[in-house]
Amino acid sequence: MTTRATAETTAATTASTASTGAHAPSPALAIAAHGLRKTYGDRTVLDGIDLAVPGGSVFSLLGPNGAGKTTAVKILSTLVSPDPASGEIRVGGFDLAAEPQAVRAAIGVTGQFSAIDGLLTGEENMLLMADLHHLPRSEGRRAAAELLERFDLVEAAGKAALGYSGGMRRRLDIAMTLIGRPRIIFLDEPTTGLDPRSRHNMWGFVRELVAEDVTVFLTTQYLEEADQLSDRIAVLSDGRIAAEGSADELKRLVPGGHVRVRFDDPVAYRTAAAALREAGTDDEALSLRVPGDGSQHELRSLLDRLDSAGVEADELTVHTPDLDDVFFALTGGDDQHTTRSREAHR
Ligand SMILES: Nc1ncnc2c1ncn2[C@@H]1O[C@H](COP(=O)(O)OP(=O)(O)OP(=O)(O)O)[C@@H](O)[C@H]1O
Q1: Domain spanning 27-251, CATH architecture
Q2: Which of 51, 60, 274, 293 has its CA at 20 to 30 Å from residue 238's CA atom?
Q3: Which residues form the ABC transporter domain (predicted)?
Q4: 65 within ligand 1 shell (Cβ under 6 A)
């Protein structure tokens, strides 16, 4: 989970990341869905959700167990039909209903429905995939070798995939997906059950994909994962998008944010405490805790008030709530439920 330490940034750093963003999204939408609906019997899983994912960005669909994340991925990747009452859905610029083949050619899907054949070796799985994509034999061999190398599977390439660890299977799964050179890739809970090292490696692969202008649609129950990787995050709850935005935007939605103002000089500290009456005080650390969202407007006003009081802070730190706070506030989720579902995936 995101530690307080990483959530704490100086005001200057926060201002600069907020203005530049993680990636400059290309203008075209890789995925655009309007009023996406899906019901199973009398259970409404998706209740008319809108999605807009710019090309070359990472979009995370976050939600508790059973929220409908996999259903959304299955629909967008043509594996399951949306309800007829849904609005227009376009993936890779193609209409999902009218041109499903073109959509399939533009995308790659990995996740809970992996295509790996455990009886074949890693290399054989790759070559089979190359055949399915109608790559000429020599090109298929070259692409397979390249991807096996990139995903650190060269040593395991000659062994049956049945014996692979969870992390190796995920890597092989992604490598197999990439052999078709998809422009859009769906990663359904790509790191569930992986150890921290494998999870960080997987994040590295996702970042590499985005650097190559691939669009990544990610589902996850791990808030830190969404926080680390995503340009935009949508929180799915009760079949609807409860909130959408960058990780920073979402964090500003829940209370708990504050600015910590610290002084070296006790006199300056006391003067500031008198000027900022709403602030919580920490006499030992000579620091004040001023409630707020850390926005530019609030920071400017805070600095103006310190100026008027004739004091200068030695340290100014913006504390934003982390994504856990947002997730539980928006989904009304109970922690245990999510933890249980993670255990079940292991
Ligand atoms: N083929 C199906 N028939 C009936 N109900 C289904 C079907 N597929 C999914 N559901 C139901 O739809 C709901 C959403 O399932 P989905 O797998 O999309 O959730 P999820 O958010 O991906 O959950 P998880 O995090 O556990 O993977 C669940 O209640 C599930 O039981």
Answers
A1: 3-Layer(aba) Sandwich (3.40)
A2: 293
A3: 31-263
A4: yes
